[in-house]
Amino acid sequence: MPRPDSPDDPVVDVRGLRMAYGTNEVLTGVDLTVSAGEVVCLLGPNGAGKTTTIEILEGFRAPSAGTVRVLGKDPMRAGDAWRARVGVVLQSWRDHARWTPRRLLTQLGDYYAPYSTPERPRPYEVGWLLDTVGLTEHADRKIVGLSGGQRRRLDVAVGIIGRPELLFLDEPTAGFDPQARRDFHDLVHRLSDLEGTTILLTTHDLAEAEKLADRILILAGGRIVADGSADELGRQVAGRSEVRWACGAERFVHPTDDVVAFVRRLFEQHGGELTDLEVRRASLEDTYLAMVQRFESGARTRPVLEEVVR
C-alpha cells in the first residue's frame, strides 16, 4: 500500500495555526512549510511561541485552531508508525540514571526495529551512534555519573537512535563545549546531506543558526515575521553592506547597496594603492534584532517578508 504522503509533499505544512491559554493568545496565525531535507531554524524572543509551535508539530499539544500536517498526518491523531519517523532532542533527558548509555540506546532502538524499511533501516547501530556523538569511552558508565556535556551528547543520541526522517532539536547545543558544538554541527550536516533528514531546530545561538540553517523563520508576537536564508534576510531586511578599505595610512568605511559596483569603482580610482579591503554584510544578529524591534515598534514587516520569499 502506498504511503499517504508522496516525496513531493512538504514534510511540515501549517496553515492558520493559533494557540491560546485562556485569554492569552500565544500564536495568532502561523503559516509555515518545510520541505524534505531542509534544515530550518525557528528564532524568536522568549514568549514568542517557539516552544508551543514545536510541541504542536511534535503532537504533544493540541492547537486552538488551524491545520497542521507533519509527514502527511495530523500529529495529534498519528500512530506509532508515524512516531517512529520522528525524532525529538529535548532540552534534557533525566530518566534511567542508573543505566548506561549503551543499555539505554539498545533498549530504545528495539522499539524502532519493527518500523525498519529497506529504504531506511532502523535503528542506527548502537556502537556507531555512540562513536558519532562522542560517547564511546563512556558507553558503559552509569548515566548518573556523566558530565553535563556528556549527558547532552546522550540526549542527541536518544533523539536520533530511530534514524528519523524529521528531527526536532530544541536548544541542542546548550551545555556543549566548543569541540562538542563543532562535532554536533558536523552531525547535523551529515544527517541532512547524507541521510536526507529534515531538521527543525530552535536556538538562541544566532551564529549556530546561521551556520546550520538553510532557512530561518523569525517568530514574534505569535506569528512569523520573517522567512528566508540568512543571506536573504541580511541583504533585504537588515540594511546595507559596509565596505572597509585603506589607501596608504588612511582608512575608510562606506555603506552601500551595490557592493560589486562600489568595489569596482574603488579599484578604478585607486588601483594598486588599495589595501585591506573588507566587505561586511549585515549579520544574522543584526537582522534578527532589526526584525524583532521593527515588529515590537509596530512597523509593518509583512511587505519585507514577501520580498524575501519572492
Automatic annotation (TrEMBL):
Residues 12-246 form the ABC transporter domain. The keyword Disulfide bond does not apply. The keyword Hydrolase does not apply. Keywords: Antibiotic resistance, ATP-binding, Nucleotide-binding, Transport. InterPro entries: AAA+_ATPase, ABC_transporter-like_ATP-bd, ABC_transporter-like_CS, ABC_transporter_ATP-binding, P-loop_NTPase. Gene3D superfamilies: P-loop containing nucleotide triphosphate hydrolases. It is found in: Cell membrane. One of its GO terms (molecular function) is ATP hydrolysis activity. It comes from Geodermatophilus nigrescens. The lineage of its organism: Bacteria, Bacillati, Actinomycetota, Actinomycetes, Geodermatophilales. One of its GO terms (biological process) is response to antibiotic. Pfam families: ABC_tran. It comes from the Bacteria. SUPFAM superfamilies: P-loop containing nucleoside triphosphate hydrolases. This is ABC-2 type transport system ATP-binding protein. It is a peripheral membrane protein. One of its GO terms (cellular component) is plasma membrane.
